[in-house]
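User: Sequence in, structure out. Go.
Assistant: Echoing your sequence, followed by the structure tokens.
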Amino acid sequence: MRATRATSVVGATGTTGSRVVARLLAGGHRVKAASRGATPVEGARPVRFDWYEPATFAEALDGADSVYLVPPLGASDPAAVMLPFLRQARAAGVRRAVLLSSSAIPAGGPATGQVHEALPGLFDEWAVLRPSWFMQNFTGSHVHARSIREEGVLLTATGEGRVGFVDADDIAAVAVHALTDDWAPGTDLVLTGPEALSYDDIAALVTEVTGRQVVHHKLTFEQMRERLAAEIPLEFAGLLAQLDRAIADGAEDRTTDTVQRLTGRPPRGFRAFAEKELPGRLPIPGQRR
């Protein structure tokens, strides 16, 4: 394992970033935990960071030779703010960059696809993580988690399409290898769980594990876009609805061996995830909470 000055984790309090920080610290690595609130993280150095405030870039990069990059949430053109940061990172002595992207977005594609395409020209050591949809989308504050809790439904425009849902813990495990191994992957890595499941399958598994009846309601593209646009900008809502339509067309019906190959262990399946994360968190009609 290579010696490092420090790894700067951008988005250190987020779904994958917090897990990357924890794994790096457990491995004895120095970490700068970069977030908008400079949230304290035991064992790491918290620094304030905001993609839209270039004045915060220098502190996040000082003393770092590798960076983990979580793009700004909801940005339709993340390259506009990320590429200036990455150029500054290279000038500051950062040698390795690991970008969180998506299995649905190839190099040169929309959003993070533009950053993906630029990364090899900026750093000799790099990797792009392209995970499938997160299992954590069914917990916390995600729209799917809320609709399950509040209405007992999943609402998508995915039809019968299947997805290789992946656990954020497995994404973080791969990220740490990409950040700390002697040799950077130098490629993009598509990350999935061990099986591809439809949203009908997910609803059935959540019902079985929790005892709460959950059903999948199939929406049209337009219905999905309008539902999302109630909470996020219309352009971004359209992009997400289009991703649902791609799932319906089979774009995400696949699994990969990337987690096993890089970590030496198989990825966690959705049933195991649900059994750990969901029981006791879903209200059952007639129960008092």
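User: And one key feature?
Assistant: The chain is about 40% helix and 15% strand.
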